[in-house]
Write a sequence for this structure.
């Protein structure tokens, strides 16, 4: 399958040196195109705030626009079923798990009383919206996270270098990135860098057409999942082949 590659785009490996790993919810790693799209989105929000103008938030009722990422495109099944030529994160030097921490939350009765004119004598911590919670937090403990992609290395590093933490519970210290490193591999197979992890398994969600003739690639089976950012938006869901991890 032929990728749509702009001038200056080459196969690249992005490596994030982590302080202690990353927390995430889904079984596979954080998407590179999702990181880049989020950073562009945050820059747009910041510019709108500085200019005193509004920005359009995502809505489940409208189809989100595709941001212009510095990555090549894989046409996939054709039409709207294309995706960016980049994988999800691969943990390098991973400490075998599972690793699970827990976070808890409970309502601040005094704060609720200050914010509301009328409250019941006691806000229940056992049921309802304000109940107490104890939730598991799966962790991937590793020295580096690695992505493979086909893109413009200069533009990619410019977006990534301002990102200091990724994943869930960043405010609690998880997912702290110590440094970013990008290496170019101009002679590498472009389809492989757009789809596969370093171990040769499928490294991202992909339409079945992307794996035509690649029956030996290990995958995570099929299912409904986002094909490109924003991955959780209903308009992005397709029947795809899931990554192996």
């Amino acid at each position: 399958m032929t990728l749509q590659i702009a001038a200056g785009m080459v196969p690249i490996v992005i490596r994030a040196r982590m302080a202690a790993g990353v927390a995430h919810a889904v079984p596979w790693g954080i998407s590179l195109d999702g990181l880049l799209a989020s950073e562009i989105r945050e820059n747009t929000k910041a510019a709108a705030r500085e200019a005193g103008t509004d920005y359009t938030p995502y809505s489940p009722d409208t189809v989100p626009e595709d941001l212009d990422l510095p990555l090549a495109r894989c046409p996939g099944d054709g039409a709207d079923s294309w995706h960016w030529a980049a994988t999800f994160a691969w943990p390098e030097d991973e400490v075998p798990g599972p690793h699970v921490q827990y976070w808890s939350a409970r309502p601040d009765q005094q704060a609720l009383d200050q914010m509301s004119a009328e409250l019941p004598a006691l806000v229940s911590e056992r049921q309802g919206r304000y109940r107490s919670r104890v939730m598991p937090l799966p962790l991937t403990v590793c020295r580096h996270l690695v992505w493979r992609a086909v893109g413009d290395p200069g533009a990619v590093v410019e977006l990534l270098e301002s990102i200091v933490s990724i994943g869930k519970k960043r405010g609690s210290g998880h997912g702290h990135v110590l440094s970013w490193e990008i290496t170019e591999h101009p002679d590498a197979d472009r389809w492989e860098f757009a789809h596969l992890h370093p171990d040769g398994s499928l490294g991202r969600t992909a339409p079945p057409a992307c794996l035509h003739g690649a029956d030996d690639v290990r995958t995570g089976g099929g299912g409904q999942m986002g094909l490109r950012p924003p991955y959780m938006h209903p308009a992005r869901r397709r029947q795809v082949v899931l990554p192996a991890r």
Observations:
- The helical segments are 32-51, 109-115, 153-160, 190-195.
- The radius of gyration is 20 Å.
- The chain has a mean pLDDT of 90.
- Residues 54 and 140 are 37 Å apart (CA to CA).
